Amino acid sequence: MNQVPLFCDVALAQRIERAEAQLMAAAAEAARLRRGDDAGFVVRVAGGVATYAGDGSPFNKIAGLGFDRVPDAAVLDGIERAFAERGAPVQAEVAHLANPAVGALLTERGYRPVSFENVLGLSPKGGHEQVVTPGIEVRVCRDDEFNAWLDAVVDGFAHPDGQGIPAHEEFPREVLSDAERDFAAAGVVHYVARCDGVVVGGGSLRLADGIAQLTGAATTPAYRRRGVQTALVSARLAAASAAGCDIAVVTTQPGSRSQHNVQRRGFQLLYTRAVLVKDTQPPGTTARSDTPLADRTPLKAWEAWDETPDGVRVVEYVGSREKLRPLFDLAEDSPEQLASYIDDGRVLVALQGTDVVGHLQLVSTDQAREFEIKNMAVRQDRQHAGVGRHLVQCAKDLAADESGNRLLVATAAADIGNLRFYQRQGFRLQSVERDAFTARTGYEPGTLIEGIELRDRVWLDCTLDPATPGSLHPPGEI
């Protein structure tokens, strides 16, 4: 058993909550692809994410709030409207290490606490070998075992031990079945436990950013107290250790048998999440809307962002960033670097009709009131038509409206076209970062841009004029 004491500071909690938010976003997107419609949504909000995956889904929630910034009221208005249109309450899960202003804001808006969750952690460093429990076999679940795995897990969830604080929600089998399939599509691996020739329990594992997330573990009532959960935890910890993860986490109900079991395996309490719920459904109504988000108002342009003469408008993008990867790739030569930041910040897209012809990613920096254009590209057949200029101006408006006073952008010293473009948009040269593009940082040696080797990075900046209060009317991120 690993005895290394763990201390959970805000940075570690933020990292874990970010992984949870990414998992919810990936699962909700998988649900949308499975159904083949646009009834669900994924909305990035203040460093977290709001997701809706379908009627009664466990992925319908806001996760990861409180570690970036306090959400804007207009953003929450949009999210709450989207849930209300689907006849669903809004559930926000907020870690106690998050900014207290987030909890205060939510309670002021009518959210009420309904439950708590404990997040426990263990460091798998130093090696965790799978414990062999006599009579119990644990391994990765095969496709032909999924239904038996699901039966065992659902049966286990349907018969809780009754110890500790009960869960505030239950899910029908068909909902759990869809959720677990979506989890698998999102990169979660199912582990099956077999005893006496039958499937008696199961659990899941997701590895991301050095974090091993242990999820969805349950044992059928007839096989409890025989070491099934211990064997499931051991197998997943061994996989986490082999993958080089530095932290394994599990979420349990406070005071539950599950918490008792994982603490016996060496897990320690890191922090608690408060589960807050706001009922957004109008009294007496049960109607749900299946209208795709794009057909309502999720991508409404700001009033300050007028269309160009040829009909290009800029809106805030709320879908999967993977759909924009071809545009992101135009501006980033390193797949490793792109993977490290593609989900950060906020993304604006330029639309001509319903066609995406360009994008811009805007992120906050570690300096107060400072923003950075992290990635921007215009589709090649629409370059030199003013699309990039329009995107930059909208990014300036957005940053200024969020009290920003400085906007940064970096480009390759070899990219003369980009240097010319940004200076024409009011940016000035600030500094040169030598040897920023090397094999060490994920860039192919010998890459040429207009005959110049890709080596140095140039930083440019511009000063922003503070937005006049009320002059811009952001529709939120939905």
Task: Please list the strands of the largest sheet in the order they lie side by side.
Answer: 1-2-3-4-11-5-10-9-8-7-6
Total number of helices = 11
- Main structural class: alpha+beta
Largest sheet: 11 strands, mixed
Shape: globular
User: Mean pLDDT across all residues, rounded?
Assistant: 84
Helical residue percent? 25-40%
The end-to-end span amounts to 46 Å
Characterize the structure shown.
- By secondary structure, the protein is of the alpha+beta class.
- 28% of the residues lie in helices and 28% in strands.
- The strands form 3 sheets. Strands 1-2-3-4-11-5-10-9-8-7-6 form an 11-stranded mixed beta sheet, sandwiched between helices. The protein has a 7-stranded mixed beta sheet with strand order 12-13-14-15-16-20-17, sandwiched between helices. It has a two-stranded antiparallel sheet with strand order 18-19.
- The longest helix has 26 residues, at 10-35.
- It is globular and about 70 Å long.
- The two termini are 46 Å apart.
- Mean pLDDT is 84; it is low at 282-304 and 467-478.
